Here is the input.
Amino acid sequence: MPPLFFLAQEVESLLGSSDLLLETLPEKSIVIMKTPINCVWFKRDLRIHDHTPLANAAQSASVLPVYIIEPEVIQAADFDALHWQFIQESLLDLQFSLSGLGAPLQVLRGSAVDVFKSLFDRYRFSTLWAHEETGNAITYKRDKAVAEWAASESVSFAELPQNGVVRCLQERDGWSKLWEERMRKPQTNAPENIACPDGLKSSAIPTVSDLRLSKSTRKIHIRGGETAGLEILQSFIQSRGKRYHREMSSPNTAYDSCSRLSPYLAWGCVSMRTIVQAVRLAAGERMPKIAARAFLSRCHWHCHFMQKLESEPDIEFHSFNRACEDLRINNNGTSQRLEAWQNGSTGYPFVDACIRSLKARGWINFRMRAMLVSFASYNLWLDWKLFKDWLACQFIDYEPGIHISQIQMQSGLTGINTLRIYNPIKQGQDHDFHGAFIRRWVPELSAVEDAFIHEPWKMPEHAQIESNCKLGVDYPLPIVDHKEAVSHARTRFSELRKCDDYWQSAREVMQRHGSRKSSGNQNRPKQSRKKSDNQMEMNLNDS
Here is the structure.
């Protein structure tokens, strides 16, 4: 009985029907090759350029290129049809590129270990090449299982870094230097041609419907694939990024002026090194130096935050600062507040506009992401675990390391960062003064005067009639009072900071995860002159 039969049985039990299986391997038991075979496992690295595992595998052997659709991954709470749409487009582009080199991409479904068992029974490959991945607990466990299987079959499992994240990092000191060394290394050229096992054909790539994922009605303009990613990079360098440093904060300008490269980094369509080197080369010529510096600093922070999850996988489930674990106790009003926030009906126009824009586009700029988390955490006093997966499903550029680290930081759970409690009214006035963004995404307020667009609850009766917006009917009143909510948050954090456990945990977080860059001093907890035991001081502000 062919080994793939067992794979088909498992997939049928997980996905419901073997009719949905993709074109798989021929039914011959073993392929006898005159040359050795290397298997290249594509994960979050859907490209051929600057792909060292692919280049190394193709140097001295035939290549079996594989992408695995894992039921446990695509059915997880942090995975959405939005993600698969981007991945599918990226796989189609990758398939086209690999076919041009002579290596048809194999897209198979099932658990990674079972897929590799079946492939190994047939092809007897000697090395499994892949990039390291800093993913969620599911993929972390999966990678360990694959490594154990490879060792049991004496298959070399070669995992290589693809960004600035350092595996098995023992000491955070010196990390920035390691990041810089990696970014300066020459990019790996794509192979000119690739030998592959006889009879290999490209697989069909399933749609959202094929995978039985819930369809989304949103229309995303960001297209997946290496080709699209390189085009986006060039448009950013040549024109869109000229005012990046000035226009990245406002949602009115950020969609054009920000790079929008984050999805291509998240799914590996373009490497971090390719982007960094391209922007550095353009700085001062095609792109203003000040804009390039601002962008490059965020490339550094991109890997800095991913490193946190790499170094401490448990932060996916627990607060950085363990003393904060039970800080936000849920009560009877939690579900209503969460639902209002998710629906963009909090009664705070700028918050609601940002949520609705994010849900429609799958992307919003960083400052607005921070404000949304701040509002959920401080104004609504929601525990981060309640909304982390929902937010992950809204972001087309969902990167677990950045996502988890940022949500915790913006929720005040590290103990080493300044608490940034964003004022949703001030943020709207600062970044959408005339309310153009609000009116676009919250049409109920489209006829409201500028004087009331950020605080519609102040509209007198005649203004509500004139704007055709009856408060509490057409648009909700504020779900909470901002000042009262902030006061509550300050009080709770002040109480927490009286505990010795909080400061002990904060010191541990600083040692393991804190930035070592001198320019990052503003993010490091200051030593308090009032505390003889070197406890750390934290500012509370209202941005």
Remarks:
- The two ends are 65 Å apart (CA to CA).
- The CA atoms of residues 283 and 289 lie 5 Å apart.
